[in-house]
Amino acid sequence: MKKNIKNFDLDDLKEELKLLGEKPFRAEQIFKWIYQDKVKSFDEMTNLSLDLRKKLDENYSLGLFKIVRKLESVDGTKKYLFDVQDGEGNLIESVLMQYHHGYTICVSCQIGCKMGCKFCASTGIPFSRNLEAGEIVEQLLAIERDVGIKISNIVFMGIGEPLDNYDNVMNSIKILNNQKGLNIGARHISISTSGVVPKIYELADKQMQCTLSVSLHSSNNKTRSEMMPINNAYPIEELIKACKYYIQKTNKRISFEYALAKDNNDNLDDARELVKLLKGMLAHVNLIPINKIEDGKYTKSTNENIIKFRDYLNDHGIVATIRRELGSDISAACGQLRKQNLNKE
Ligand code: SF4
After folding, report:
1. Pocket test for ligand 1, best of 156, 194, 199, 227 (most atoms within 8 A of CB)
2. How many angstroms separate the alpha carbon of residue 294 from the centre of ligand 1?
3. Domain 66-344 adopts which CATH fold?
4. Does domain 3-59 have CATH number 1.10.443.10?
5. Residue 10 contacts by C-beta under 8 Å, 6 or more apart in sequence?
6. 345: pLDDT confidence band, cut at 50, 70 and 90?
């Protein structure tokens, strides 16, 4: 089987070219063709010799995806279902969102997810494998090719738990980050985790400049364990301890995600408990009006409750904002499109 050339960061690609008997500077040319010119074949790399193009074609693939479905929201959000072309028929989702500061892509990092969060549409889609670095990067390239735009921000908030696919995610960031490639600054990359505590420590020690988002969703273990089984392995006390270590090591603010579900975690007692938990931490709370999921147990809080919750946090020294709902008319919660496609089969 051919190797996906997008799995290699620039240094590794230089090594690959040495193995082919080529000069390392060729790697920079190839990087430019792939990530800046976004070519779809080795044949288009016209400053390489015909012999090298042939060698590349024999040994590597460009790992191109095929668009299976594409939905467009009235607010401009575009949701893609891709066939990753691995011969297994595996499908993944990515979402393109437009903000005033530019385009943001929400990428998936696994096929399925092991975490089983109860409010997530990916729950029930069995985990089949991790995505490789090249498959993470290709989500961005496939959308840039399709729409003809430059994406400036990436959030790892699609299907999968990024810290459960740590090495491939870190490798993809190296590629996304490279100035000779996509040149997306680490500050424009955000990693979201359901709370894989040991990997938060690892990330802290790496001192990367990426933003870390932690899905908290409740400030007590009972409700959080009901919503997120990972809380049984890493309860809130351990998670907050790891987050404090991360802040101390990186001096970076953590964004805590809190999906408000009606009569579940959205009353003022919950807000009070949350203030106690996060007091004094370099933190921001991102309140998310939960997306209603087919068969899901949770429903969206009332607007009145969401605003009261936010105001309580802000009045008590915790910076909180309500996330703008994008793409709610096209099932933008992660996993929904793929689930609908599986149900159709
Ligand atoms: S919310 Fe994220 S971590 Fe939880 S099940 Fe869904 S994809 Fe997995």
Report:
1. 194
2. 16
3. TIM Barrel (3.20.20)
4. no
5. 27, 28, 31, 175, 178, 180, 181
6. very low
